[in-house]
Amino acid sequence: MSIRDAQREAVIERLAGHLLAHGLARTSLRQLAQAAGVSDRMLLYYFADKAEVLAAVMARVAGELSLRLAEAIPDGAPLRPAELVRRAAAFTTGPEMRRFMGLWVEVVAAAARGEVPFPAIVSQVMAGFRLWVDSRLDLPPGADREGTAAAIIAVIDGLALVDICSDDEITPRMAAALSALLAE
After folding, report:
1. Which of 3, 121, 155, 183 is most buried as measured by Cβ atoms within 10 A of its Cβ?
2. Between the CA of residue 144 and those of 80, 128, 140, 149, 181, what are the distances in Å?
3. Cα(32)–Cα(14) distance, rounded to whole angstroms?
4. What keywords are assigned to this protein (predicted)?
5. Helix 145-165 vs helix 81-92: angle between axes, to the nearest 10 degrees?
6. pLDDT tens-digit readout, 16-36
7. How far is CA 123 from the centre of its chain?
8. What predicted TM-score, i.e. pTM, was given to this entire model?
9. What is the enclosing helix (H) or strand (E) of 40?
């Protein structure tokens, strides 16, 4: 790895921490450069533009989230959809995941408004997570794997949204209610 590539990776790592801590509120090119500890010009030396910066940083955040999910729900032992939802729900609504899910909600909202580069980022991240879920599903032959994976993601993202938007202690009760529904 060249020195430039190593420095670029260090910038991405610092900016991933910045986005997880502050969300998208402070993402002007100048604010990103400041958070990365470099000048605006140096940031543009590493990346073509702000869109490339944000795409690289979100790829890093999604990768970190995937690693954490893989630790919580390892590959190799496929799960029935209800069990996968139960495990993923318990994990993604935990306090350590709130910053990841909060950033994801912000990125999805920006994509819904058509703000570049977020539609492309959301599409890429969502495709990766559908594959991740699919690889852990135990489904009968002929089942709609892609549709099932997307439905599981919708449930998990919905739970995270309620968790993020709630000021009370609804999250544990919500997870328990979901488990009860899935057990029926």
Report:
1. 121
2. 13, 17, 9, 9, 21
3. 10
4. DNA-binding
5. 30
6. 999 999 999 888 999 999 999
7. 12
8. 0.89
9. helix 40-46
Which residue do the tokens 């030396």 mark? Answer: 45
| Angle between helical axes of 50-72 and 118-134 (0-180°, round to 10) | 20
Query: pLDDT for 62-103, tens place per residue?
Result: 999 989 988 999 988 899 999 999 899 888 888 888 899 999
Rounded to 10 deg, the angle between the 81-92 and 50-72 helix axes is 120
Per the listing, tokens 């939802």 go with: 85
Please tell me the number of Cα atoms within 13 Å of 81 on its side-chain side.
20
Please give the Cα distance from 105 to 164 (Å, whole number).
Answer: 9
What does the alpha-carbon distance between residue 9 and residue 57 come to, in Å, rounded to a whole number? 10
The partner residues of 11 in beta bridges, in order of sequence, read none
Q: Minimal CA–CA distance to 101: which of 61, 137, 51, 71?
A: 61
Fold of 50-183: Tetracycline Repressor; domain 2 (1.10.357)
Q: Which amino acid is located at 154 in the chain? A: A
Identify which of 96, 41, 87, 29 has the alpha carbon closest to the alpha carbon of residue 65: 96
Contact 99, 164 (CB under 8 A): no
